[in-house]
Amino acid sequence: MAVASAQGGYLERPRPSGLADVIDIILDKGLVIDAYVRVSLIGIEILTIDARIVIASVDTYLRFAEAVNRLDIAQNDGSQGLPELMEGMTEGGAKSKTKGAIGGAKEKLGLGDEDEGDGGGRRRSKSRARNREDEDG
Amino acid sequence: MGEVHVYGVVAASERPEITAAEVRRIAHRDIAALVSDVESGQLTAARVLRAHWQVLEQAGAGCTVLPVRFGTVMAGDEAVVDEFLSPSHDDLAARLAELAGKVQLTVKGFYEEGPLMRGVVEGSPAIARLRARVQALPEAAAYYERIELGRLVAAEVERVRERDTALVLQRLEPLALATSHEAAATLDTAVNTAFLVERDGIERFSGAVGELGRELQGRMRLRYVGPLPAYSFTGEDTPAGSAAWA
Questions:
Q1: Whole-model pTM?
Q2: ipTM, interface predicted TM-score of the complex
Q3: If you write DSSP's letter for every residue of chain A in order, what string do you get?
Q4: Chain B within 8 Å of A76 (Cβ-Cβ)?
Q5: Using the beta-carbon criterion (under 8 Å), do A41 and B3 form an inter-chain contact?
Q6: Is A35 part of the contact surface with chain B (CB cutoff 8 Å)?
Q7: Considering only residues 155 to 174 of chain B, which have any Cβ-Cβ distance to chain A shorter than 8 Å?
């Protein structure tokens, strides 16, 4: 996926998007024609996609606590990155909430191949699907 | 005539080259909708989503396109005219005119954990003390202390995030016509902002992003995506108070 990053070198030019880079924009932005026109057809899948992650706050706090406690290790080898923290979030205690929703949506979307290399880059912390559905209904 | 996916709206004089899907134009006066027939049979969200993204990307490469929200399906060509293009004509034409020659550039920043956490501990004696106490206790015994520690860290990270967002906006906002501040998507998200920029201004804007990226290196990774159709500047979801779009 061609995405500019400061580490790889450069931000001198914007890069064309990979789908994974813009999925939040695509799902949430754009002109709404009419609530009633929208989607009998793919509504169910949209709900699935939009079930992007709800992190219980307690769980979030525990992860932050782990991150700050890891600091000594990080100072020594410099290798701990927040992406690893994010990986931990989906693999660890939050599995039922996060891995399920995101993993499911990604499988459905076939995003796996494009989405590597950036552990938690685009996961979302809230779902607007429910609201939207309520308004639309 | 069956249902159609509606991707976006362009000026009727534009004929963008689109290969991602069997896209047709439905023109009404000086504007036209880009649509494709809804295929019968198995539809997967993945295919529909990819098509939506690619059609708008290809359309946006050649001309100004007003993106329609993903997943919009209308009853047929007549419905596109009667229920969309015709009643909204003046508004759509005005928005298209406003967006002419402009693109969206999105800048996302993600924190590096080590430097972020080090800053948090060094900046807050309360966090440093609680952290020392938590580390001295067995994990199970320190459950509530860990939650409290995490709560303090989260609040501190939020403060850092606000400061960094302000820095990024201070540097980039003057080079953009409008700004749309998106929600922090993940715990490690530092910044997530869409900028509306003149095509002619991309180079200057990129220079500023590059400079910012070098300054923040080691502390934050920037991702710089675009040029995109102006998804975040269609007049929907524009956060109140942003320097936006009227």
A1: 0.69
A2: 0.74
A3: ---EETTTS--SS-BPPPHHHHHHHHHH-SB---TTTS-SSSHHHHHHHH------HHHHHHHHHHHHHTHHHHHHH----HHHHHHHHHHTTTTTTHIIIIIHHHHHHT-GGGSTT-TTTT--S---HHHHHHHH-
A4: no
A5: yes
A6: no
A7: 157
B55 CB within 8 Å of a chain A CB: no
CB contact under 8 A, A120 and B223: no
Nearest CA in chain A to B40: A41
List the pLDDT tens digit at each of the 246 positions of chain B: 688 889 999 999 999 899 988 999 999 999 999 999 987 665 666 677 788 889 999 999 889 999 998 878 888 899 899 989 999 999 999 999 999 999 999 999 999 989 999 999 999 999 999 999 998 988 778 888 898 999 999 999 999 999 999 999 999 999 999 999 887 667 788 999 999 999 999 999 999 999 999 999 889 999 899 899 999 998 754 333 333 333
